[in-house]
Design goal:
Layout (H helix, E strand, L loop, with lengths): L1 H26 L5 H10 L8 E4 L5 E4 L1 H20 L1 H11 L1 H21 L8 H17 L9 H15 L9 H6 L32 H14 L3 H10 L4 H10 L1 H10 L22 H11 L24 H5 L2 H22 L1 H8 L4 H15 L2 H12 L13 H28 L6 H26 L5 H15 L3 H9 L7 H10 L5 H26 L1
Amino acid sequence: MQVLENKLSVRRCLTFVTGLVECLCFAGVVFGWASLVFVLKEDGYFSSLCFNTTGVNDTQKLDCSAQDEQFSLIFTITSFINNFFALPNGFLFDHFGTTVARLLAIFLYTTGSLMVALSSPALSFLLFLALPLLAIGGILFLITNMQTDHQSPQEELMLSERWHCVSSPNRIPKFNSSKCSSVSFEFKFYHVQKLQYDIDLFCLLKIGNLFDSRRSTIINLYNGAFDSSSALFLIIKLLHESGVSLRTSFLFLSACSVVHILRTFFLLPRTFIPHPLPDRYAYGVSCGPLETMSSEVTANSCALTGAEDTPFTKDVPLKQEKTFRECLLSRFFVGHLLWLSVMQLRHFLFIGTLNPMLLRLTDGDSSLVSQYTNAFAFTQLCAVLCAPWNGLIMDRHRGKPRAAGETVHEADLRASVLSLFLTALQCVLFSLCASIPSLPLQYLTFILQVLNRSFLYGGIAAFISVAFPSCHFGKLYGLGTSLAALFCLLQYPCFALVNGALGGDPLYVNISLTLLSLLPFVHPLSVYLHCRKLASLRDKRETTAFSS
């Protein structure tokens, strides 16, 4: 038995470590676009769009604004697809499970890598398809390390009882063995706790379920790893400067699909990792005792259908929750959508136009552009360190006594105000620094950008999980992410405006975006006023009760 426990512990550690490496090296690489653009320009992609123009004092200079416009269009499409496809990818994972979703992710990611490897200046158009494929494959890698669905506390209780029933029928006197043996359900475990830090549609890292006492730490590490994975393109850029071709680097990335496949079958379950984790839970392809145990668990992993018809739910009181329509039309959702859309547009436009901005500030000095591009990519690595901060802010009230009559929901909402406010404030400061045409100041801009991005994506899911019923979490988050992706399509018209009517000077666009960045403050203000209203009503009730 001890040998078996050791084997399970080693496998879980391997699952965690390899998952962290996978997110760090593959999941969010498309956001290292600035480093890849530098390499693509060096190799002459879209160089046919550059032409000589007459500058000041009749000097000849190369105008590559049309080339920059094509690169901006590629990133606009890629960032849009990365966010917009989060919802359908989540449904795919929910319906087919881990193995099918990962095999699709591996196919898309490998195809995208091969298309970049096979591209050339004459086949530059392949990038329009290759980068979106990398984005979809990467987000699927992240999704398969997460669990998307949520449940109500009543469903959590029911599933917990059924887990005990399956593992040991005699532990629950009110359930007899015949009922337990007929229990059939699917490992579709939902996120119940109000997680305070996450970055995407999928609030619960299922690998985190393997380490119940450290779930929050592991969740934050994965979130930071996703943000930091953009540094992979920096490595490709440094290798390119050392003589390693772009084709060789992306062929190596394609070859890594073998590692992804091995991890899919040996270190991940076919369906889902449950929470809470049952005793001696095993998964993946094994031999001997592990295989037998995995088969037993899988055998009990049938569909949880008709749960409301079973006697387990009769004793559980159901609370009337808001409908999806009511949540969708609420000021909280509209404010959160505004908060997300504006700040995400600012970040995507900055990343997509970083290279032309540096070219303008350095007067075309390629060595300086390379230096600042490397600095930006290095700051992205710090995302893994910034990720837990927002969670600590939102979790600061936990373990402390609440005000008389204050519910956990109200306390969570009150704690979210500071996080929402700080995130909006960071965005304004970041946008202000990005608007000032000072090259040394961009170091500070890079720091503020990575800090704000960590807070932004850490707060999206956290607030929705706090403000709305858990049964609507996936729909609200998916729809919000998709609508925000549509809003982010404005980054291409902004870039076209800079290159066209503004003659390459982005000052007025940057000022406009900075002023637009003030709008997200409406959201924390709205939540703060709501919390004050609840506190006032609570005080009135207490006063009335005391006087009577």
